[in-house]
Amino acid sequence: MTELKSTVAPYDGKSVCLFCGSSDGKHPDYLAAGQEFGRKVAEAGWRLVYGGGGVGLMGGAARQAYANGGRVVGIMPGFLRSRERLFDEVETVVVESMHQRKQMMYDESDVFVVAPGGIGTLEEVVELLSWKRLDLHAKPVIFLNINGFWDSFYKLIEDTVNAGMTPESFLSAYVNADSVDEAIRLMLQSEDTPHIRHDGR
Questions:
Q1: How far lies 42's CA from each of 83, 104, 196, 197, in Å?
Q2: Could you give the CA distance from residue 152 to residue 103 in angstroms, rounded to a whole number?
Q3: What pLDDT shows up at residue 200?
Q4: pTM of the predicted structure, to 2 decimals
C-alpha cells in the first residue's frame, strides 16, 4: 500500500489527465476502452493523472497503466475515499475539496482526455472548457467518444453557438476521438496544438 499524501511527487515527463466515470457503465466497450487507454498511456511513456478511485473506468485505466509499468497519480477528496475506493497501490494524493482536486489535476497535466462518465465527469469537463473559453489555458482537450457517447454533448455546444451564446471558434477548443488509438495519437501530437483565443470581448 502506498502512503497517502497531500502533495504530488515531482515529475519531469509528460502527463495526461483522464476524466471518466467511477462506474463501469452498461456497455462493456466503455470499461474496455478505459483499460486500453491506461495500458497505452503507459506504453507511450506518459504519466496518468486521474481521480484516484479504484472502481469503474477510472479504476480500470489506472490499474492497467500501473500493471504495464506506467507512472500513475490519483487525486481524491477525502470525503470520497470510501465511496470510490482508492487504488492505493499507486501514488495517491488526498485533498480537501472537489475544487482542489480539479485544480491539482489541471496543474499536473499537459493534455486532457474525457472518456464516458456521468454527471461528475460532465461537471469536470464543463469547468475545464469554461476555463478555455476564458483563455485561462490552452491545453488540449480530447473526447474519447466511444460508441458516440459524447455526440449529444457536442450538439448542445453547437446549439449554444447557433444561439449566439458561444463564439464559433470555440468548436475548435476540443477534438473528437472515436477510438483509444485515435485518442493516443492526438495526445502524442498535442505539442503542435495552436492556442486559439475564444474570448473576443
A1: 26, 21, 30, 32
A2: 27
A3: 52
A4: 0.90
